[in-house]
Model the fold of this input.
Amino acid sequence: MSKLIIQVNQAGYGQGSSYQALQFTQAAIDAGHEVLKVFFYQDGVLSTNHLQSPASDEFALYQAWRELGQTHKVPLVNCVSAALRRGVLSAAESAENQLQHWNLEPPFQMGGLGELVTGIEQADRVICF
Amino acid sequence: MILHVVQYSAVQDNALATCLRYIQPQDTLLLIGDGINALLLRKWQEALHHTKVCLLEQDVEARGLQARLGHYQQLSQAEFVQYSLTHAKVITW
Amino acid sequence: MKKITIIFRHAPHGSAKGREGLDFALLSASFEQEVSLIFADEGVLNLIPQQAPETIGAKDFLAAFKALPLYDIESVYACQQSLADFQLDESALAIPLDVKTPKEIGELLTQADEVFVY
Done:
């Protein structure tokens, strides 16, 4: 069984690749592979915004990522710099920036690009979407 | 042996053209998302004539293109995972 | 340590791809990975000297390309065909690099452990 890193580079709503990444991650887990982490970079960090509120008859991509992360204990890691630039903040960054609101909740977490690089070092394969 | 993945429309983005500039004869090209639409255009059908091409099955079905693209090899999600490991690396353009 | 190759295929300033790709390249190098860069397609426009991105509200990330040797990134390549397409003179680029034919770039991609496209 192989160790994989999945990198998501596009926003969730309106662009297909976050969904593609979710499907691929699920299929990899189903096949018995270990997904070391899902790393959200570039516009991919927008997939992790807790305040996304799709209509009830639409696929809830955010919830699907959250469930996948919780069910399979896969770390869902944002690049903190890419996230801050795009207005995705956890409670900690919100406080640091003297803001009243935040929109990143567990199991999503903030990390640095260094976590992506160390993950790449450990992984057998990286797949970007 | 590389698995090249193109996820963008060849009409909107130069990803497919750039990929084809560097692809090697032993490599595989997987079209996903709007990337598969390229095969509806004669220009790309011809350009890809000598390339090993496959498509993500769910994207063909989602777009109602099974009748037109059914003769190309199609991968399930599980096969996509397999391909990503049987090839030496995956390059997403 | 892995051989990480980063391809820049987008023009600067129109998107954040170049800037975020460069961030990834520098971080990878500072984490002791063997990093190489390839400028291809419209990405060769990153190599034009004397750009002024601040005039359009963009960050001048191009200056950091000049710091590549400080990060021990010495394998920097541009696609000969892409330079020709955009009529760029090899001798008038912002940073020193090696020009490679598309065939040579295809071989470089084969040698890398992982390739990332920005």
The mean pLDDT of chain C is 96. The helical segments of chain C are 17-30, 80-85, 102-111. Chain C touches chain B at residues 9, 40-42, 79, 81, 102, 105-107, 109-110, 112-115, 117 (CB under 8 Å).
